[in-house]
Amino acid sequence: MNVTDLGVLLKSVDVGDEMYRVIRELYPLCRSITGNGVRETLRIIKKQIPLQIHEIPTGTQVFDWTVPREWNISDAYVKDSRGDRVIDFQTCNLHVVNYSVPIKRRMSLAELRPHLFTLPDHPDWIPYRTSYYQENWGFCLTHKKLMEMKDGEYEVCIDSSLEPGFLTYGEYVLPGQSSDEVLLSCHICHPSLCNDNLSGIALLSILAKYLGQISLRYSYRFLFIPSTIGSIAWLSLNEHQLWKIKHGLVIAGAGDPGKLTYKKTRRGDAEIDKTLLHILKNSGQDFRVLAFYPYGYDERQFCSPGFNLPVGCLSRTPHGGYPEYHTSADNLDFVRPQYLADTLLQSVGVISVLENNKTYVNQNPKGEPQLGRRGLYRGYPHGGVDDLALLWVLNMSDGSHALLDIAERAGIAFADVRKAAEALMESNLLKPIPD
Ligand code: ZN
Q1: Cα distance between residue 119 and residue 46, in whole Å
Q2: Which pLDDT tens digit goes with each residue over 32-74?
């Protein structure tokens, strides 16, 4: 099976439901940039693909950063004077500011108040907050609940630990014919949020599982890493082999109802940029293309000037572009199997272009070859090959235009140009330039 057949296969299975099941299993875990929530997440991904798990010790210097102490949490609450948990980590892990230092003491509401975070505009939603590199503690709650809290004494407990440990991440390399690599990366550090992080994890793990069943031209490297420190640590440990990366994508926010969005690489004209533009233009859907900017997901590390890797970012609504972003409303109802499946299928389309975007040389460049004699003109016996695509491929295949250039120049979908090239190869009218 090749990648084109894979696209057809995935359309026929409930791949959206398969991705959604991964999200549902990972949703309850309290993840962070380090700790057991990340380990448990990687253990679950390992059910889909034979992931390699890396542990980088606290204190390891990675470029300008230091791997922080590991954070773990078992319980947290705020109890009122009657002993009732008015805020309870056990009901939702977003209730605790991620990376909160441990605390256990009684205090007044006035004393507690600066440590409480709400969303007054969405009084039923719990915000998601972190304090990774600043020692602090806090609770997030609905604004409605805060309004109900009366003056008086509260018992405040965060049973967390911040101790020397490890930064944990997962990596899976799928070898192809070439050692040239496609890098695909997602975040694994958010707790119970579905679109932001879990949809990317679901997409990459299911994509990796299916790509593992076909023969590939490129090697594929899948990274499941905590944001910022994870990609910086990975870049630091793999600096010697970054030259292998020919194309890359960060996948994030893959399951919301918004239109697909592609954020270009810092280079702006890399093959991955041209590929995404072509796929989105031919998707039959509305879409959005953004120029590179140094914010967002880990593309900002991969595209830092010292690396300038050809890594773009594919999402649906961009980060921060929907009200549910970083709140408890980014839940199991917010992501839908149909959108997850669509983002996956478009990603497979991208891989199909990368895999097949080769450069050919016309073996009969002096005048047009006589196609009719070869059964290639008007009613090609194998069907499905566009006459105009045949002529474009023959004309442009002078060794300096790859199939994607031809598709763009001709205004024909890549799949049709690829079919034309295959038919011309069969008739010995075209020869590929070796990789
Ligand atoms: Zn986020």
Answers
A1: 36
A2: 999 999 999 999 999 999 999 999 999 999 999 999 999 999 9
Task: Determine the distance separating the centroid of ligand 1 and the alpha carbon of 196, expressed in angstroms.
Answer: 5
CB 99 within 8 A of CB 32: yes
Task: Work out the mean pLDDT of the chain and round it to a whole number.
Answer: 96
What is the Cα–Cα distance from 138 to 65, expressed in whole angstroms? 25
Cα-to-centroid distance, 190 and ligand 1 (Å): 7
CA of 399 to the centre of ligand 1 (A): 44
Integer Cα distance of 202 and 70 in angstroms: 25
Query: What is the tens place of the pLDDT at every residue in 141-150?
Result: 999 999 999 9
Q: Return the residue matching tokens 């408890």.
A: 328
Going from the Cα of 127 to the center of ligand 1, the distance in angstroms, rounded, reads 12
User: What is d(CA 249, CA 265) in angstroms, rounded to the nearest whole number?
Assistant: 9
Q: Judge contact between 339 and 141, C-beta under 8 A.
A: no
CA-CA distance, 67 to 404, in Å (whole number)?
Answer: 42
What's the average model confidence in pLDDT over 14-19?
96
Element (H, E) at 344: helix 337-356
Q: Find the 197 Cα to ligand 1 centroid distance in Å.
A: 7
CA distances to 28, 191, 331, 368 from 97, rounded to whole Å, are 16, 11, 18, 68
Q: Which residues surround ligand 1, an ion (CB under 5 A)?
A: 196
Q: 354 near 45, Cβ under 8 Å?
A: no
14 Cβ neighbours under 8 A, 6+ residues apart: 337, 341
For residue range 374-416, what is the model confidence (pLDDT) as tens digits?
888 775 555 678 889 999 999 999 999 999 999 999 999 999 9
Q: How far is the CA of 128 from the centre of ligand 1 (A)?
A: 9
The DSSP secondary-structure symbol of 434 reads: P
